[in-house]
Amino acid sequence: MSNEPSMTSFRLAGRGITKRFGSQTALEHVDFELAAGEVKGLLGANGAGKSTLLKILAGAIMPDEGHLLLNGKPVRMNSMWDANSRGIALVSQELSLFPSLSVRENLEIAGCNDRRMSRADRDNAARSALSELGLTVSLSLPLGRLSLGDRQLVEIARALLQEPQVLILDEPTSALHEAEKRRLLEVIKGVRARGVGVIYVSHFLEEVLEVADALVVLRDGKRVPADFKPSKERLPELVSAMLGESAVSGERMAPDGCLDPGRREAPPAVRGRAKTGSLVIAGLKGPAHLSIPSWTIEPGKVIGVAGLMGSGVEELFGILFGRLRASQGTIELPSGRYAPRSINQAVQSGVAYVPADRKRIGLMIEQSIAENVSAVRSLVQQADGFFLSESRSDSLAHDRCAALRLQSRSVRQKVGALSGGNQQKVVFAKWLEAKPSLVLLDDPTRGVDIGAKREMHGIIRGLAEQGCVVLMHSSDPLELVNVCSRIHVFVNGMLHSRLDGDGLTEHALVSAMNRRSLKREYSELEAQAV
User: CA 354, CA 444: separation in Å to the nearest integer?
Assistant: First the structure.
């Protein structure tokens, strides 16, 4: 007798789901099932159809063909509000919060709390949901003052407050640090124990394998017809199913599906600046905690900067990109100019910044690919005179898109319609067009699939090899270990240690990041940092 759930036992199911956008088919006759108390991992490369399927399951868009069943009964959902009222909650990778409103207002705006409850009871429920995720923050605090990771936790808390039957999590850990990730995975296990069906999407394959009971893989809008059980031993086979190619070919794989650092992929063609000078910092003190006595970074290698929230990494990037002012000290940029006093000045001095929060500060979502690619070059650097023709703009964008293997219908397509990985490639494209000498990467592969991540790692290495000074920060320690030649760790605003060679391991990095006491003298720090 089969142990498979019957159709009526599925919490949520889709049959023959098809969705087209113009001439492009995003999903083609996809079947999907989620049982009560099950965590279903949904995997696929960028553009595979994951986001489209999630939006259909959450009521945001309707399928062109096929139907949905909720608790065994056909259901037609006309909006996300409709889905919410039926017990389906979606936490999207692209946050749907309102930065100008308070944490409390963001938690209540979607009707997450029963309005029949008193304000005190609603506040207690909100604090409990936030605390469960490890976030302690004033409910009256404007959301915009929180970090990207904390805003992501607020969005997850808002979904939990709905007490859903189905919880859809789209890249929920992409902006979280390791401790926050661990806590969220435990919360998911608790939600599953209460009978909630969970759909879990993440490009961190190791996370999916840890938390999921079963896996569904999409490729090119279709469900891959194979039975994938969550097993680390089957990781190469899983990656191959996602990418439609051999994932191993004699190369070792890191747990996140990226190539082992022992075998580097050749970078795609990029046109960076010719090799220039080093980044030289002396006697630097930031507006908060940052303090760097002496630090010199030469071009040619990818240099990692790591640390927990508030360790000084964010402050360093803010000063180098002109968003923050140092209280004392000197900075000589690779271009030969000194510390920028504004973002415009930083860009004109050859500084590029690829942020983790691409939709908020990295892209013009409603503008075309071409307009985004030429934005820095034309508007800030004024490299094209008073007016850049549309044909010239299209030509520049086409060349960059081809070099980065960006998938789109045309360079006139709106950036907001692209997948997360292709959006991030647009961010890279606009900075490559500006020909930077200093590149600041803050979680540059957040929320992208392993194929796009692999390509971006090649781009990053290519920038360094062609003469840029490259500083990279990532919320994923393993990514830093895989990509960087060495890593400098910040603790309490100070350079604490340097990892390279045989000492450059994930275990050593996480241990160094969590050191709370500084026992080294400045002389030792200076000797290590150079």
Answer: 6
| Cβ neighbours of residue 514 closer than 8 Å, sequence gap 6 or more | 308
Element (H, E) at 306: strand 302-306
pLDDT beyond 60 at 261: no
Those residues with Cβ within 8 angstroms of residue 23's Cβ, 6 or more apart along the chain or in another chain: none
- Contacts of residue 404, Cβ cutoff 8 Å, sequence gap at least 6: 268, 425, 428, 429, 432, 455, 459
Helix segments in 205-261, DSSP class H? 205-211, 235-243
Furthest-apart CA atoms within the chain: distance in Å: 75
Average pLDDT of 502-517?
76
pLDDT for residue 231: 82
Please write the tens of the pLDDT for every residue from 290-324: 999 999 999 999 999 998 767 899 899 999 999 99
Q: Other CB atoms closer than 10 Å to residue 91's CB: what's the count?
A: 21
State pTM to two decimals.
Answer: 0.62
Region 470-478: mean pLDDT is 88
Burial class (CB in 10 A: 0-12, 13-18, 19+), 408: buried
Coil, helix or strand at residue 455: helix
List all residues 6 or more positions away from 98 whose beta carbon is below 8 Å from its beta carbon.
105, 106, 109, 143
Give all domains of the chain, ordered by start, each with its CATH number: 1-84+164-172+199-249 (3.40.50.300), 88-162 (no CATH), 279-350+437-529 (3.40.50.300), 364-435 (no CATH)
The proportion of the chain whose per-residue pLDDT surpasses 70, expressed as a percent, equals 82
Which DSSP string do the residues of 131-179 spell out, in sequence order? HHTT----TTSBGGGS-HHHHHHHHHHHHHHT--SEEEEESTTTT--HH
In this prediction, residue 6 carries a pLDDT of: 45
Upper half-sphere CA count for residue 473 (Cβ side, 13 Å): 24
Closest by CA to 476, choosing from 495, 455, 457, 463, is 457
Phi and psi for 62 in degrees, rounded to 5? -110, 145
Q: How far apart are CA 118 and CA 189, in angstroms?
A: 30
Q: State phi, psi for 384 to the nearest 5 degrees.
A: -115, 20
Nearest to 265 by CA among 28, 482, 489: 482
CA–CA separation, 333 vs 350, rounded Å? 8
Going by C-alpha positions, the residue among 478, 468, 407 that lies closest to residue 267 is: 468
- Give pLDDT tens digits for 155-168: 999 999 988 999 99
Give the span between the Cα atoms of 43 and 27, in whole angstroms.
Answer: 14
Confidence (pLDDT) at 263: 37
Beta bridge partners of 193: none
